[in-house]
Amino acid sequence: MAGRYVSIWFRHLMTDWFSLREPERRKQPFVLTAPIHGRVTIVAANIVAEARGIHAGMVLADARAVEPTLQALPEKPELANKLLHRLAEWCIRFTPVVAVDPPDGLLLDVSGCAHLWGGETPYLETIVKKLQARHYDVQAAMADTAGVAWGVARYGCAPWVIEPRRHADRLLVLPPEALRLEADAVARMHKLGLHQIGQFMHVQRASLRRRFGEHFLQRLGQALGHEDEILESVQPVEAYQERLPCLEPIVTATGIAIALEQLLQTLCQRLQQEQKGLRTAVLKGYRVDGKVEQVAIGTHRPSHNPRHLFKLFETSLPTIEPALGIELFILEAPKIEEQYDHQEKLWEGYGGLDDQRLSELVDRLASRLGTEVIHRYLPDEHYWPERSFRRATSLQEQSTAPWCIGHLRPLQLLPVPERIEVTALTPDHPPMLFRYKGQLHTIVRADGPERIEQEWWLQQGQHRDYYRVEDNAGRRYWLFRLGHYHEKIYQWFIHGFLA
């Protein structure tokens, strides 16, 4: 057991949400209702209604007899779970591990986080005050186990921060309900006169299992720290993540840049020690108003160079809108690859695809112009020109086939050959004239034909006879005839442009 946990209890979760939508309800008694066994029953009451003796489980008619001005709204069954998820995502600014604890709470694994706020007590107070500022009625506790934190938050009293290794002492005076037990087990314990956990905490496990079942022992073991309790975070925690909370909300572009530099230095130092580099990174800024601003980058090869990565982020930083201020920055690296330092050759010059400077140049161009404007191609083993090459996935991908250099090919190839009108002598003379996009071109030089057969194992069809031609304006084109002249169904196409 090596950790610290916080349990947050939203005492009036649903009614608080309705009050946020209509602030005038905060001073009025109102409840949420649902039909249960043919009667309209109260499922939640706000603070004002509870102060007047109205509580969950009462029939609405009986409650109105107590308080004639009571207002009632229908319950929204799925709203509580959605609201808890939204609040859990908001709490990620305090810790990366936040789990939903239905029906009205959250559980946080805060191990190693409190020192960033000046200690555990200021840390817990900050969480409570910020939630109260959002008009939620909350109560929270911190302990060595999630079970004790949960029980103290709901059934305990101050101090809300239980000192390390003192969680069992606080558990002694709590009622059985604090162990998160089923209702029938709690009722049975009270019936036996067991009103505090200390009355049965040291009873033999065999006797407890026989009377109350395995679930009871599991909850007791989790509270004491004898059994592990795994929290399901609402967002998966990246293995490579750095956090930077701010003492004062950051509202300037300079402050955002400084925060990013600090995060990159820390993350890159760790990556370098582990001989790894990042391929993608995301910077998230958690604003005071609850919104999250984020920008992302990608690299063509693994990198742990903080200066280079900062330049990639630099073009996107102006898109971050701090509004009232950013109180937490998180830098995540979702995609990590191995990166080993290569030995430099003394007698050979720099250059080539393995040059780190080339990769960084491509990264900077992609960050400014977009990744779709930069392409690298590798040869592919096909006869058909449009199939004879493929997009490379990275600068490091090796070719599995040699480039075909026996024939001159155009620098620009059309994705799909386009129909043209051609005048040519039969049977195999090159074109004399052709019309492309309404413009007539007179051919003064031509070379060909170069016959390329159809790949019968892929599809059936006619062959192509290619010609390299030059018009009277000095422009050069790559044309082909599909099929033989004598077939009388041949067609002419333009397929590319030569230098």
From TrEMBL:
UniProt xrefs under Pfam families: IMS
Entry keyword set: DNA damage
Residues annotated as domain UmuC: 10-150
Keyword Repeat applies: no
InterPro entries linked: DNA/RNA_pol_sf, Rev_trsase/Diguanyl_cyclase, SulA_CellDiv_inhibitor, UmuC
This protein's record includes keyword Transferase: no
Entry's family note: Belongs to the DNA polymerase type-Y family.
Protein name: DNA polymerase Y family protein
Species, as recorded: Dawidia cretensis
Biological classification of the source: Bacteria, Pseudomonadati, Bacteroidota, Cytophagia, Cytophagales
